[in-house]
Write a structure and sequence with these properties.
By secondary structure, the protein is α+β, with helices and mostly antiparallel strands. The protein has 25 helices and eleven strands. Strands 1, 2, 9, 10 and 11 form a five-stranded antiparallel β-sheet that branches.
């Protein structure tokens, strides 16, 4: 967890690698994922770099794999999943040659099979159409009562004009039949007699696989000239014409031959499909492995293209950012790369001084990764800046639970998060949608939010809008039964009805209160929200001191932190003190009248009077103030708080003016640059070329900063009241859901109808509880908690202007491709 306090120290390194060991060394670095390489050839186009041919080879292999994968998907063959713990290493050059040959062989074989399959299926379709034409034509001829064929049916007789009567048979798409018939009629002026019949057999297009609906036709006409025109019309409508003898015996003989050929071609199609299936199944077993290997190989060559080549062309020179802790790992990778190829000249590492702001890198694990993502969504930490994610691991689920305080709902959320944590290995291997991916990555956040919600729900003594009597109520009823039953609005006097303090949380007897339950819980939760808000902001303000000390801006501690802390503590910190003091001092069992609850002043009214320098009034027998000297102390607090405003406004600009006049060096530039940019200030000092900001701009920026802080102190404190508002809304909505749904079934008369009603109403109540109370209310509380951290907490010390450390890592590369 110590690594999360700040971003890690980064070192700019220069790598000197021998050409023969470059591939193996970069592959080893890619497996470790600890170097962010810089492109030293930014002015060189991609086609002029050294390893462009190797990248093209990888592109060609990727194209081949995409084609093979498309054919596998087309045949609906399942591709086995490749899990992250089973990923192959980057291939060595010898494996690359074998992989390239294997892919080329598989592609050629699949293409040949696809081409042969297309030809065979096209031939099969034509034979089926021809068979159907012969079968339908036989029926057409038997229906021709006007046309008199000769006895042997070998020739068609001539008509009275001496012209031969001929016909053309074929197949046409069903949607074109109507236009086809009209065209024949107009072209021949009614001298073509067309007979047609739909094909009921389902046919598929060999190319697209779409279902075809076709119609068989026979066109009878007279004369050779008309025959040519009919054939042109058939060609224009893309009708397939098939030879059809006019003799019955010839048609029967041809039909038998066609059927025999169809049976033979079916056997060929089946054998071809079996062979194609075997080839694609074999490829499917390795396609994911091949994909990972090629992607790793391509990434290595892309990285090598970022290297420079020395003048002797005997060494590759690369630069990159490396976490200081990982320097030994990088050196070991270079040694492993050299030893893998038997290089006699070892590769080595050189540390460079840089004026550039290093990237920000925070090492996380599966628990802290979700919380870090929440912070990075606002802005990545500047280099070596305090990281709020470390504290968010506790404050985020706690503030969420303050708004979502229900033991029942929190336990359901905890079980959901716990189930994802227990089965994280199994769930991590499954492909998920975007929403499920987000929930799985935040499984520890959900589990902690549910656990903390159980804690606050137990404190609020709220479980599905009901209470638990764990320790026994500390209230005692001193009235008899008749008085209780005849007085529905009976109230208990705490002076006589209490026998102590409930050990933890709210006494369950408040569940029975009708008139003042909301008033009591309102006051209780509102004060808690202000207390937690002020403590949260003070903690955020204290973290700014860590940044000032680390970046050696000691003057900012006295010129910014001290007045800001005084302003916050003397006003709102004092208000929190008054809340605790009021709880301690005033008691119903006190013997002093001025310490009774009736004499307790309103904290809000006291705070307003304090800001306006007004005088407090009190009832007879009561004290106007909680303690002696309170009025004078409050005036001092307000005066000091007001003095803090010009302190914040003018302190830093005047200090900059003083340092500029008295120092001729550049040491003052650390102070002259905005505190929210520590990485830039450090880089500027190291570079030795600072740009002095005009004093007018410094005064303007400081005035904006002062106004923003003073106003935000008030608005941020009020913003924490959302803890109270959402908690109250959640409790009231849960109570309404209980009274309006489940209570109806429980209060019904006994019998079968009541049992059935309870069953269905319980299911309906469960559905609404999960959908509204857990999911919708949980999302609302989550977003409000996120805002409290991003704005109210992190604005006190966090700039978030860094840029991410993006190492050359095979794991990140493969994960991003799997997500796509």
């Amino acid at each position: 967890m110590g690594d999360m306090f700040r971003t890690e120290k980064m070192t700019l390194c220069q790598l000197f690698i021998q050409p023969e060991a470059a591939y193996a060394s970069v592959a080893a670095l890619g497996e470790k994922g600890c170097v962010q390489f810089r492109d030293l050839n930014e002015g060189v186009t991609a086609f002029q770099r050294k390893f462009v041919n190797e990248v093209r080879r990888c592109d060609e292999m990727e194209r081949q794999m995409r084609y093979i994968e498309a054919e596998i998907t087309k045949d609906e063959i399942k591709i086995p999943e490749l899990y992250f713990d089973e990923l192959p290493d980057a291939p060595n050059p010898r494996e690359i040659i074998d992989l390239e040959a294997n892919l080329e062989k598989t592609e050629v074989e699949v293409r040949e099979l696809a081409a042969n399959e297309l030809k065979i299926k096209t031939n099969h379709l034509e034979l089926i159409e021809m068979r159907t034409v012969l079968e339908k034509t036989e029926g057409f001829f038997s229906e021709q009562e006007v046309i008199d064929l000769d006895i042997n049916r070998s020739n068609i007789k001539t008509n009275t004009d001496g012209a031969n009567l001929a016909f053309v048979a074929g197949v046409i798409n069903r949607e074109r039949v109507f236009a086809f018939e009209r065209m024949l009629w107009r072209m021949s002026r009614g001298n073509v007699f067309l007979k047609q019949a739909d094909m009921h057999e389902q046919l598929k297009d060999p190319i697209t696989g779409n279902v075809l609906y076709k119609t068989v036709f026979v066109a009878f006409f007279q004369g050779e000239h008309l025959k040519q025109r009919v054939k042109k019309v058939c060609a224009g409508f893309h009708a397939a014409m098939y030879p059809c003898p006019s003799s019955h015996e010839d048609r029967i003989g041809m039909l038998k031959g066609v059927r025999t050929r169809i049976d033979d071609i079916k056997i060929v199609i089946q054998q071809s499909e079996d062979h194609r299936s075997r080839v694609l199944n074999t490829a499917a077993k390795h396609i994911n492995t091949w994909t990972v290997m090629v992607k790793k190989m391509k990434a290595i060559y892309h990285t090598l293209n970022c290297f420079n080549i020395d003048v002797t062309e005997k060494c590759l020179i690369g630069e990159g950012w490396v976490p200081t802790k990982d320097m030994p790992t990088v050196q070991q990778c270079l040694l492993d790369g050299s030893s893998a190829v038997g290089s006699t000249v070892p590769s080595f590492l050189n540390v460079l001084d840089s004026h550039e702001a290093p990237p920000s890198y925070i090492r996380t694990n599966k628990f802290t990764n979700g919380f870090q993502n929440l912070i990075d969504s606002y802005g990545l930490s500047s280099y070596r800046e305090v990281n709020p994610a470390l504290y968010t691991c506790i404050t985020f689920p706690f503030l969420f639970a303050v708004m979502f305080g229900d033991l029942g709902h929190g336990f359901c959320m905890f079980l959901f998060g716990l189930s994802m944590v227990i089965y994280e290995k199994k769930l991590g291997r499954q492909r998920r949608g975007e929403i499920l991916n987000i929930m799985f990555s935040g499984r520890y956040i959900i589990m902690l939010m549910g656990l903390f919600a159980c804690y606050t729900g137990f404190t609020y003594n709220d479980i599905f809008s009901k209470s638990l009597n764990v320790f026994g109520s500390k209230w005692r009823i001193r009235y008899n039964t008749t008085t209780v039953l005849t007085n529905p609005t009976l109230q208990l006097n705490p002076e006589y009805a209490t026998v102590g303090v409930y050990p933890w949380g709210l006494d369950p007897i408040w569940q029975l209160a009708d008139d003042n339950q909301i008033i009591f819980t309102n006051s209780y939760k509102m004060k808690l929200s202000v207390i937690f808000g002020v403590l949260h902001m003070i903690f955020g303000l204290c973290l700014s001191v860590e940044n000032f000390i680390y970046f050696k801006r000691y003057s900012s501690i006295f010129l910014e932190f001290l007045p800001q802390a005084l302003f916050l503590l003397l006003l709102f910190g004092y208000m929190v003190f008054m809340m605790f003091f009021k709880w301690v001092k005033y008691s119903a069992t006190s013997d002093i009248q001025s310490n009774s609850p009736a004499c307790a002043p309103s904290v809000l009214i006291t705070f307003i009077k304090m800001m306006l320098f007004g005088e407090m009034t009190a009832l007879p027998g009561c004290d106007a103030y909680m303690f002696s000297g309170q009025a004078q102390l409050e005036k001092i607090f307000v005066i000091v708080a007001v003095v803090c405003i010009p302190w914040i406004l003018l302190g830093k600009p005047f200090w900059i003016m003083f340092t500029r006049r008295n120092n001729k060096t550049t040491s003052y530039d650390v102070e002259s640059i905005d505190e929210d940019k520590p990485s830039e200030s450090k880089a500027a000092v190291a570079h030795g070329e600072p740009e002095e900001e005009p004093m007018s701009e410094i005064f303007i920026h400081q005035a904006i900063h002062t106004i923003e802080y003073v106003l935000s102190t008030i608005s941020h404190t009020a913003s924490y009241l959302r803890l109270w508002a959402l908690s109250l809304a959640h409790a009231e909505l849960s109570q309404v859901l209980w009274n309006m749904v489940l209570r109806l079934g429980l209060t019904m008369n006994s019998g079968y109808i009541g049992i059935v009603a309870v069953f269905f109403l319980f299911g309906f109540w469960t559905l609404l509880t999960i959908a509204i109370m857990i999911m919708m209310e949980g999302l609302s509380a989550f977003l409000h908690t996120l805002r409290l951290h991003w704005v109210e907490f992190m604005s006190k010390f966090y700039s978030g202007e860094g840029y991410a450390f993006q190492p050359f890592s095979f794991k990140i590369l493969i994960e991003s491709n799997f997500d796509d």
